Amino acid sequence: MSKERYIAAKQQWAEKQKAKGVVPRSEPRAERLPPGQKLTTGFPVLDLGIHPEIPEADWRLTLDGLVEKPVTLDWKAFNALPQVEDMSDFHCVTTWSRYDCRWGGVAFTTLYELARPKPHARHVYFTGYDGYSTNVSLAACLDADVLVATSFDGAPITLEHGGRARVIIPKLYAWKGAKFVKGITFLEEDKPGFWEVRGYSNTADPWTEDRFG
User: What is the largest CA-CA distance in the chain?
Assistant: First the structure.
């Protein structure tokens, strides 16, 4: 299943590249807004209250767990990977949504290709420099719009919004996208993260209001 999702995601990225650039979604429609959400043009800050300032020389992203090739990337190596841009909507579990967020960074499929997860890897566990963690199924991470983002609207992501790099998984509530990301671990068994052990949902689907377990 993971291989098929990976191939499909890569094909979707190829189609976007053929279109030469980010393609904004059509004019906002009511059905874009998940149930229980309110649209905003702002960008509220919600986190653990810890904003770790990691110097560029000290920043690392580690890919490990059930992989053929564990790797640790420094800032230069990470930014040397193929870069992408994607426009997506952002849904917070606290009931606000923002349309057409333009993120830039490295597609999750590129990191998948680099680390080469083993066939029995089924889950992904993200950790951040702020002590945060969250769990996502590998299948969900292999959507074409999932990325480790370093820019927002063409500028570096600010510290309050998770810079130097944060995870973006548009089809799930935003707590699944770890800010200040430092580790991506591939697992066979699910491992609940910070909010999941405190009663939040594992699957976090905005369209079914899957907020709490």
Answer: 45
